[in-house]
Specification:
Blueprint: E1 2-6, H1 11-21, E2 28-29, E3 40-47, E4 51-60, E5 63-72, H2 79-102, H3 118-125, H4 130-140, H5 145-164, E6 169-176, E7 178-179, E8 191-192, H6 193-221, E9 224-232, H7 240-253, E10 261-267, H8 274-282, E11 287-290, H9 297-302, H10 309-321, E12 326-333, H11 340-353, E13 357-362, H12 394-410, E14 414-419, E15 430-434, H13 441-448, E16 453-457, E17 461-465, E18 472-476, H14 481-486, H15 488-493, H16 496-503
Helix pairs in contact: 1-2, 3-4, 3-5, 4-5, 5-13, 6-7, 6-16, 7-8, 11-12
């Protein structure tokens, strides 16, 4: 779709709303005026003495609709507030015109961000009642009733988590960028072990150095680790001796006395063994992920997984036998070759296993994934689909998610964190569900940006958070294993930035 910006250059705001309203469209810019009847948006901004006014004129499939929003100039007190206020009215004007043109509203209304829970959480921290916070979602952003309910449940979990945190506490993420194979939907930078086996040992040597540097930094800064999360990739791609050494070094060089949650993503059932789980349990892991994504064998094959549903059941049984008290299982709604009935059957099987946590993701067409190549197959029949073919329609995904809400609440699970992604089917969301009292503190802190996350290993991003102001700085580790190995000196030296940040608070 052609985008014409008059009186401003807030391209990002326009493009965010375009993605929300018309996810199949990509922005185009032209110096020439819009042609008669062409699909286009003219988004204008005018600042007068009293009001700043945003006006949208949208032509879509032969229909032209207009809308406007405004804010008081007196609200524009500094550059940050100015940018936020002007982008808000521009997006809302576009939204109003877009809804009129397409004849329907997205499930999250005019919200475009990754973290919708921040809006009611911020409102309640400022003194609003839950009902008042929900009205912001309803009246300002026109969020649907079901999504408002999800957001409010997760906002309460966020508030509870925030109250439990101490100023000196941080969380620790350890990234292991290796997997047995790469799934079709995945865009994470991870190395296929079959091709990168020789990199694992030097990677672990580098990670050992980073652990020691991090431990010294945390001790010197007086910071305590509240939660630990091993992600990736697939951490259980490592062998039992490698896991034992890594987790042992973490305990030896980093003070974990304040740690109340220790998660390891075992993830792929084809990496889970009794020996590995014994190492995790002995080294203090209290939460482990066994992630089927689906229990349908033909869907597993369509997304490039090298295991079957029966392997998932075996891996789950091993996890239960290990004594690790909390098990998470992930499912994805909207996978290629899946159907509404297939997703329901998968979820029913997972619920019957009674894991403490169940995370329901919505398929996102991520750049860099093989699945992106099959996006044109959306809604087509799934017979013998190749990778990326037969992706369910948005309506089918909506049915999957509606069933998930009903089935999970019936099973006693509650939503406790959520987030959204670009190019997500139907502009829906990912939701973490749990039995009461088994919420993952790390997941809440990461998604709601409640405190600093110190990241180690490949592809991790340290997120430095000022809990008083919400100010955030990010420090990224190298993404690729070889790059991480080569730059380990700089990675270790960079950990002092965490100490400087917290010393300045």
């Amino acid at each position: 779709m052609k985008l014409y910006l008059n009186g401003h250059n807030y391209k990002y705001a326009a493009e965010q709303m375009l993605l929300t309203l018309f996810p199949d469209q990509r922005p185009e810019y032209s110096d020439a005026p819009p042609g008669h009847g062409e699909d286009a948006l003219v988004l204008s901004l005018h600042q007068g003495a009293v009001w700043a006014t945003a006006t949208a004129k949208l032509t879509w499939q032969g229909r032209t609709c207009g809308a406007s929003r405004r804010c008081r100039v007196a609200e524009l007190t500094d550059q940050l507030s100015t940018n936020r206020a002007l982008q808000r009215i521009l997006k809302l004007a576009f939204y109003d015109a877009g809804v009129a043109a397409r004849g329907s509203e997205p499930p999250w209304g005019a919200l475009t961000g990754v973290r919708p829970v921040k809006i009611p959480t911020k409102a309640m921290l400022a003194g609003a009642t839950p009902a008042q916070a929900e009205r912001v979602l309803k009246d300002t952003y026109r969020v649907s009733p079901l999504r408002r309910e999800l957001a409010m449940d997760c906002a309460q979990a966020s508030l509870d988590a925030k109250r439990s945190l101490r100023p000196e506490e941080v969380s620790l993420y350890v990234g292991i960028p290796f997997c047995p194979t790469r799934c079709a939907y995945c865009s994470f930078v991870s190395a296929d072990v079959g091709r990168a086996l020789k990199l694992i040992d030097p990677f672990l040597e580098g990670l050992s150095r980073e652990i020691k540097a991090t431990g010294a930094m945390l001790a010197g800064a007086g910071l305590k680790v509240r939660s630990v999360y091993f992600g990736g990739g697939t951490p259980t791609t490592l062998s039992p001796p490698q896991l034992d050494r890594l987790m042992g070094e973490l305990a030896d060089f980093i003070d974990l006395s304040a740690c109340t949650e220790y998660t390891v993503e075992a993830g792929r059932p084809d990496t889970i063994t009794r020996e590995k789980l014994a190492v995790l349990a002995r080294r203090g892991c209290g939460r482990v992920s066994v992630n089927p994504q689906t229990m349908q064998d033909h869907v597993l094959a369509a997304m490039g997984r090298a295991h079957r549903a029966e392997d998932i059941l075996s891996a789950y049984a091993l996890a239960r036998d290990s004594g690790i008290p909390c098990v998470n299982m992930d499912l994805i709604a909207g996978l290629p070759a899946d159907s509404t009935d297939g997703f329901r059957a998968s979820l029913d099987q997972v619920i019957a296993l009674a894991p403490e946590n169940i995370t329901v993701h919505t398929l996102a067409m991520k750049k860099g994934s093989r699945l992106m190549n099959g996006a044109s197959n959306k809604g087509k029949a799934p017979e013998d689909a190749e990778e990326g073919a037969g992706v369910p329609s948005d309506d089918d995904v909506a049915s999957m998610l509606e069933y998930a809400w009903s089935a999970l609440r019936t099973a006693g699970q509650i939503p406790y964190y959520l987030y959204r992604q670009k190019y997500m089917s139907g502009s829906f969301e990912n939701v973490g569900w749990c039995l009461p009292g088994t919420e993952s503190l790390y997941n809440i802190c990461m998604m709601e940006e409640l405190h600093t996350i110190v990241s180690l290993g490949g592809g991790g991003v340290t997120k430095l958070v000022d809990p008083n102001t919400g100010y955030i700085e990010r420090v990224a580790n190298p993404k690729y294993p070889r790059e991480y190995i080569e730059k380990i000196d700089a990675v270790c030296a960079g950990k002092e930035r965490v100490a400087r940040f917290h010393g300045a608070l």
